[in-house]
Amino acid sequence: MKRSNLTPRLPITMSRDYFGTCEGLYLLHIWDRVNQHCPVATDIAVHFLVTSSQGFGHNRFRAKVSRYFKHVKLSSVQEQKILTSILGKLSNGEIDEQFIEQLRYALFLDTHKTITCANQNLTSNKSYVVRYAQKVLEIHLQRELVKSHLKSFKFG
Description:
Blueprint: H1 23-35, H2 39-50, H3 58-68, H4 76-92, H5 99-109, H6 111-120, H7 127-152
């Protein structure tokens, strides 16, 4: 099906129905609109990040959004919704491919809550949850070491 008006930069955020069964094109469109700072697309991306859909490319999209949202000012409600969702997925064992990017974003949003959640999940009966909790603590430790090293380093 040919869509002559489908260009990489549509001037408005199109509905999912516009793309029919081509969900990958829809995700690319939303990604492009988020990069253009479209609030509607940002809301869609936030909603997509907190849901647990299992379609082709969904986890890759969540990882991309997680990396990009570090550079975007979201509302505190959106940030809390995302944080609650990511930490809930960790605690419930709903870990998908490229989930580590979401955990890095959770550390960025609220280090204390994320570290607390990781510590609580160190005793999980699911080995993969324990591995991800350990990875969160390892990432946090690395960041703290870099910060302390930079403080002791004299520039100029």
